[in-house]
Structures are given as C-alpha cells and as structure tokens.
Amino acid sequence: MFKPLIRSSLPLVKAVGSKTSRRQLKLLLSTPAVCRTATAATSFSVGKNILWSRSYSTEAAEAAASNTVDNKDEQEVITGTEEVHEFKTETKRLLDIVANSLYSEKEIFVRELISNAADALEKLRQVQNVQSDINTGKPLEIRIEVNKEKNQFIIQDFGIGMTLDELNENLGTIASSGSKKFLEKMNDSNDDSSTKDNIIGQFGVGFYSTFMVGSKIKVYTKSAIPGSKGYCWTTDGQGSYTVAEADHVSVGTKIVIELRDDCKSYASQLEVDSIIKKYSNFVGFPIYLNEQKVNTVDALWTKDRNSITPEQHKEFYRFIANAWDDPQFTLHFKTDSPISISSILYVPERHMEVLGEPIKPGVSLYSRKVLIQPNSAGILPPYLRFIKGVVDSEDIPLNVSRELLQDNILSRLRQVMASKALKWLDTEAKKDPKKYNEFFMEFGQFLKEGACTDAMHKREISKLLRFESSKTKASSTEDMISLDDYVNRRKNKDQKRIYYLLTPKRRYAEESPYTEIFTKKDIEVLYLYETVDEFVVNHLKTFQDYDFVAVDSPEAASDPLLVKASSEQQNDDLSDIDANDLALWIQNSLGPSVVKGVNVSRRLSSFPAVVLEHESPAMKKMMEMMQGSARMDTMPPSPTRLEINPDHPVMKGINKLRQDNPDLAKMVAEQIYDNALCAAGVLDDPRSMITRLNKLLEITVNQAAEQDKKVKV
Ligand code: ADP
Ligand code: MG
What we know:
five-stranded mixed beta sheet, binds magnesium ion
C-alpha cells in the first residue's frame, strides 16, 4: 500500500498545540504499521472533513444566532479538551489526483523520469567525491528504449539506485522526496559544490506521472552502496505495490512501463525524441534513445562566458530558436540579486512578422536546466518578442506540477530581464552604430511599439530609436541619428524642442512649406515616415527636457527662433495693419466652417500660406480605417487655422484684387487654402478642386492672351 506523507499535517496540529496530542501524533507517525492501518481504514477523503472537536461559548452561540459577526475581538473561549485527529487519506484517490489531475500533458512523465535519473546520477557523482571506493563501473548516462511491438517505455540510469528502505520511503510514499532530503543534508554539511544547483526533484510526486501512461510499472534498482541487493518494485497504480529481491540488477535504476493502449505514442522513437528535446535537452548527462544520443547541444548558459565560441553560440541559437540564420547580437549574463538568473539572449538577423502573423515570444524559462515554460510570454515585455533565448532561474516559484506560480518573484524576473535587454541593445548601439542602425531598420518597429506601450522603460527605449532627418542622407542607415545626437548637435543652444515632421516621403518633407524656415535657420527636423511614429512622439512627449513639436503645429508657428529676420523684408511688403486686414478678409471669405481663424506670419518664404491645427494625416487614416472612408465623406472636415505669408506675391496680388475683382480674389484664396491642405497631407480629395483650378487657368490664359494682344497692338 502507498503511504501518503501525513507528516505534512504537523504544522497544522502544532498550531492547535496540546502537549499530549503532539506526543500522540509523533508516536503515530513513527509507527509505519499504524500509519498504514490508519490510511487503509479511511472513512473520508483528504481535506473534506476536519474533525476538530471544540466547545463554543454561549456568547459565540448568541452571535451566531443573531446572524451577526462580532469582529472586534475573538470572544470565543475553548472549554473542552482538545482532541487531535489526523487527516485521513484515501490513498487510491490521492494517487489518482497526483497521476491524473496534476499535469496538463501526459508527455510530462518523460521529463519527470529523466529528471529523476539525472538526480540519481548527480547524487552518485557527489557521493563518489566523498567516498572514492564507490565505483559502479558504468558511465554516468541515461538510456531510454522504446519498443512499439512490446508497447514499452524503458528508462535506465547508472546512478545512485535505491536500497529497500529508500524504495519504500521514496516510491512507496506519496510526496516524499529523497532528492529534497539529499539536498537538505548537503545544505547542513555546508557543501558548496554545484550539486546543490543541479538536483531537480523537490516535491516527491513526479514519479507518479508514470501512472498517467502505464498500466504496469516495474522498477529494478540497486543501490551504489557496496554490498547492496537488487530489488524489483512493481505496481499497477491502483493503490498498492510489491517489492521483491531480484538478481542481475545493475547498479542504478531501470524503470519499465507497460504503456496503456491509449498511450501507445510513447513507444514511438520519433515522438519521444521530440519530447526529450523539448523538456530535457539540457539535462547535464547524455541521454540515449534507442542507442542514439539525443541531447547534442549543451546548456551554454551554465558555462563560463569567455569559454564559448561564436560557433557554439550559433549552434545553440539555431537549436533554441529553431532557426537557420545567425544571431546578430548575443547577450550572456548571470545575476544573483535581486533574483538569481542565468541567461543567454539573441537578436536574430531577420524576423518573420512582416508576413503578417505576430511572432511568438522567443525566450524559454528553465529551472535547473529543465524546461518550465517554452516561449514564455511572461519573461520579456511583448514588444521584445523578437529576442530569442533562455532564462534559467532557481528562484522561480514552481507548483507541484513544475508549472509557474504567479507571484512577485516572477514580476521581478520580468523587470530584470526587460532592463537587461534594453541596456544590452544600447551597448550594441554604442559598440557599432552602423550595425545597430541596420538592426533598427529591421527591428525598429518593435521598439516603437515599446515606446507606446511600456511607460516604465520609456526613457531607455527612446534612446534606442533612430531617425532620418533634414540633415541625414536619404535612406542611409549609416546616417540615421538618435535623439541624443539630435539634441547634442543642435546649432542654437536656445533650441529647447525636438522638431519633427510626419511625412509619407522624404521628398514631400523637403518640399514642404513647413520645413522651409527650419532649413533657413539651420534647425534639424526629424522625418517620421510611419503611422506609428506619430503615436511614438505622442507617448514620449519629451526626451530629456526637450519637447517633441511638430513643424506644422501652432507651437512651432509661435517659436521666436523661427521668425524671419527684418533684413529679409522688402519695400513693397504689406504693413502689419494691411496684412491683418487681408487676413480678416480671407477669414470672412472662407467662412467659419472652413477656418477658425487666419493669422499673419512672417516665417514663410516661398509659400503663400499653411494650415495649422489640422488633424494629423495618420490620425485621419486611422479614423478612415475605423469608420470607413465612405462614412467619413459625409462628415464635414473640421475647420483649421490658416497662416498667411503677406509678403508672398500671390498674397500681395489678392490684396490688390480684393477691391477690383472680389470674386476672383475669393476663388484664389480658396485655392490657396486647398493648396495648404494638400501640403499638409490632409486634403480629402484633390478632385474637388479641379473645377476651380480649371476656371483659374482659364482666367490666367485669357488675361495672358489679352496682354499679348495689347502688346502687339
Ligand atoms: P522528486 O523527484 O520531486 O523527489 P519523484 O516522485 O520524482 O519526486 O521521486 C521520488 C523520489 O524517488 C526521489 O526523490 C528519489 O529519491 C527517488 N527516485 C526516483 N527515481 C529515482 C531513480 N531513477 N534513482 C534513484 N532514486 C530515484
Ligand atoms: Mg522527480
């Protein structure tokens, strides 16, 4: 009969605390026969019923009767004698829970058996260190045989093995972990060898995962302690087991599983090979499956950083990322605080997200070289999903089925990992700016996503962004600049803003009325080509103490650094009074549904006007996508502000024309307005202005012909 480990109920009993009862309990626990009888004579199942006998005081009874809870103090007084009762367990049911409800995947049994075999080998190694006379004459390796005909799964190790007592204690007792005890003993002896970090087992339930797949399980084992006998332990997983002495048993442990009919796939070499590779590839001992070595790639992260060759990194990267390219950046680090981590991270050469599907997170979580979570979404923030790698941490809290427990250690791990990754990219950028810029061309979109979503690391991410600008060459990765570059190389130290222009093409930016004055004043303008860029600058708002300001915004229009010098004024320029008059006239002509107001500005040169306070082209595109462009058409465009350049010949012309031919002057003003919308990239549909343009052309052509005639006459 299997024994459940009822010692774990001791703390509960201690909390109740009568001396007699504790002694009684100890007595009970030290008598295996009593334990077994108690278990066999079960009358109810685990945790359901607790037979605490208590007497309640009358106050408590009254409180209960009046349906209120008096939570000021605990007023209840125990008057009777306390009796201690143990939780009783229905072993068969407990086994059933452990075997069938603990793990979400049946294949986990492979991981558990390999982990146990690796622990047994590790323990042997440790014992051999202390006792040199223990020599099994066998290699420290794990062998697995699967056989479809026999429908068997066999695993053998030449590790420490088990004595009869250990068999009963470890396999005959649910939730008793020999490995945990081994570790505790080592901790007591203050041994600082690496064994401590390598022992995987701790919960004492992993072995029972074999019950998910096996109809019969046989364990042959012989302890490595000289003079030990061999044993055969068998069970059908139904609540009892047998043990018998056996001959011809090798030192170590061999487990033979007769697979259930619905688990035949675990007799397939192909299937088992992929399960081993998935969970246990990095276990520290060779694993052979039907005589072929499975784990050919080492757990690089456990090795000394300086001893690893680029070739090894390449092989490791390709294995974990399931990729064929080479890593372009590699980060290998270990930390001890705030949490112990060993990790290797890689940036691939390319990513496949361009094909549409978002890529899966690329970092897997390991604990003591055993996979806990493949492609874990919890380690790096989603925008760093392009990074591939492994993280191994002994500190992460696991539940009994070795899955992750959600708690604050995990969020600390996330914190550390995100900061490390961002710092790493920054270091790479400083090391080789050209290479980094090339990386940015491929992966920049992820960092921009981060700038919009990760408020906590905004600063670090903003340092990683790269831009084209009015002072860089077109599409030159070498030339792209960072925000630090922008700030550091500004000519006028009074400039407290980072100017940018959202533009679909570089050529539009260079021909834009908005950038003209910036070129004149030698102020650099960042060119932002993608829709997401607008969200990036809106989220960042500032870099260091510099505000992001769009060159086509009203803030830019009012920057004193951008005013035209008075030396540039000409004699026939309109006076301020005349200019304001003209502005008012244009405002009235266009009407309030078109413009909120018309301002005079002297920063423009070759353009008669620009619009301000217009919606951004990216925003407009988004709205169209959300609402459908047909519906957008039915909504009138919201009025903008017009900024006119009174010194432009067209404006001077309108000023004269508005007295003599107000209709024509109005038509020209309307056209100038549409041109300004067009330059800002927010004109709804240029087709709407064709009729007016044709009319204006007609007038121009006629006038020219008229003049021609006069000249000839
Ligand atoms: P855990 O590994 O968490 O301790 P398991 O249920 O997997 O729990 O195993 C229970 C115990 O059985 C182990 O701690 C170990 O003492 C013993 N054991 C299991 N497999 C082997 C093995 N292959 N060789 C030696 N001892 C083993
Ligand atoms: Mg185990």
